[in-house]
Amino acid sequence: xxxxxxxxxxxxxxxxxxxxxxxxxxxxxxxxxxxxxxxxxxxxxxxxxxxxxxxxxxxxxxxxxxxxxxxxxxxxxxxxxxxxxxxxxxxxxxxxxxxxxxxxxxxxxxxxxxxxxxxxxxxxxxxxxxxxxxxxxxxxxxxxxxxxxxxxxxxxxxxxxxxxxxxxxxxxxxxxxxxxxxxxxxxxxx
Length: 190
Fold this sequence. Notes:
By secondary structure, the protein is mainly alpha-helical. The chain has one domain. Helices cover about 65% and strands about 5% of the residues. The protein is globular. This is RDD domain-containing protein. It is a multi-pass membrane protein.
């Protein structure tokens, strides 16, 4: 029977998914940088003559593309099977409070609510100290609080689980017949 996933296992799955997401964001960013360079820049002949992409392009095109990549990654996996690749590795499954697969709306709310506390903490870090390190540390603390909240919640839910009416479960191992046992059985039948 599935149980509520513990914070350590959830974080391990996020590390796996994070590697995939970084690769996807790199590809999206590279493609958009090339496109923006071709469309909007005179690159010149030397590196001193090269320009940077316009701020409006970075904010109006690249940032939304990165957000859509993140939402699309989680949304597609959660809608299809309730599991990302990292979650499959650690036998985790995210379902709605009725036990079904997430809708696009639930996926979006879950992603945004998971990002909300780290973003808020980053803003507070920027206001209090202003350094990049303070912003990073504050964001990481907000991120960890989302998951450490599971330890203090009676049902073991993270903050974003509660805000999106979802739950992440640890599913039991499925007993598979080993290849060796299959071959042995076939040999005995012959």
